[in-house]
Amino acid sequence: MNEQTCAPERFLLGFVGRRAAMEAVDAPDTMRLSEIPEDGVLHSITNNLYIEGDCLDALRCLRHSHAGRIRMIYIDPPYNTGGELMYHDRFRQTISAYRGLGAAADAYGQQHSAWCAMMYPRLAIARELLTDDGVIFISIGEQELHTLLFLCDELYGAENRITLFSRVTKKSSNNGEQFSPCVDYIAAYARNAALVPSYTVALPQEIVSRYKKTDAHLSRRGPYQEVSLFMSSLKHGGSHYPITCPDGQRVVPPDGKPWRWNEQRLLQAVSEERVVFKRSTRTPLLDASTGKRAHWNIYTKMYLGERSDGLHPKNFSEAFPNTLASHELRRLGIPFDFAKPVNLIAYLAKLQTSGEDIILDFFSGSATTAHAVMQLNAEDGGQRSFIMVQIPEPTAPGGTAQKQGYRTICDIGKERIRRAAKQIAAAYPESTFDSGFRVLRTEPIGGET
Q1: Residue 147 and residue 143: Cα distance in Å, rounded?
Q2: Is 432 among the domain residues?
Q3: Secondary structure (DSSP) of 78-145
Q4: Mean pLDDT of all residues in 32-39
Q5: Would residue 272 count as lying in a domain?
Q6: What is the per-residue pLDDT across 268-291, written as a single tens digit (0 to 9) for each?
Q7: Angle, helix 18-25 to helix 107-129, in steps of 10 degrees
Q8: Domain that residue 352 falls in
Q9: Which pTM does this prediction carry?
Q10: Residues 242 and 380 grouped into a single domain
């Protein structure tokens, strides 16, 4: 066998246009950013950016100024449901190359290849922009879910996949054939998952309501609930030892099973009045001396005021249906279809960011991410800043947006930010969130300003 054919093999996603996509990551810069002051708001003092142009060009420009500085990226790229992609800039050879393969080159494979060729360099450069503990969240549908995960596993590392979050988009749909599509997904990848802090959310009311009991420690520890020291589901890993009850009876769990706590921890809890002994005729505990049923059960106190850690968020939610986005845009008077809900992106940003962190969205659309950042800052006093990137895609001829004077999607996004800022300021009059943004445009290096 020829030695040249024995190159090391590895697992990766192959698609037509892959070589060009890989070369595009480190291709020479051909574009620069030029400011359009008259389109901005408070442009001389704001930290927010709105960039008009192909996101690949914008990402290359940002690589010089923002490498390693972006704490969170959220993108909602094309789901590739069959419509024409707007991002053929570097990959127009893809279709002709694919057709050159012959009869086996079907339209289905061509569509996936074009999408992968478009996404590959953008995802690769996006990783360079993330902080060491930064995370990218990517909304996606079933059409390209599998290829997106392959691409991100290669570019970010499978070990850096944080989660695949499932979101119920609607409940009343009866579309489709065998199943009605009601869910989309958010793939979350870190630059280095080991450095990403643990995510927590506030305890839901249904859990808070369980903390009903009070004692002398209410002012410091809050109300509490009782949790049995013995749990039959705990079969191993703990300590099995006798506990002396108030009347001197020594009790143990049945069948040699363990307590939830070891003896040292129990003694500490008793000294801090965190243990409750209750007489019971139905206790599962046994008398350590006779082996007969004991007449005591033992509980520990779990205090609400000491549960500052909250809960880990679930990787499934019904709280962010698309109807929320429709209502939000209607209230703002913004004509746009298929936006994501503000509270979805604010939810992710609250998990991942704080303080003066920067949040990037390079498929900005109607600028929902900018809206979410301002909303979250107004709520918690943060000083997060946003960078929106959107290709100036023309609005539909004769459509509502065009009739209202919006020539491009960028016009819609910028106006949405202006109106959202006013709406948020009215709702939070004491807040000092950054409501401005500078507008930049990509243009050829050496071109006219």
Answers
A1: 9
A2: yes
A3: ---SSSPPS--TT-THHHHHHHTT-TT--HHHHHHHHHHHHHHHHHHHHHHHEEEEEEEEEEE-HHHH
A4: 96
A5: yes
A6: 999 999 999 999 999 999 999 999
A7: 20
A8: 29-201+312-444
A9: 0.82
A10: no
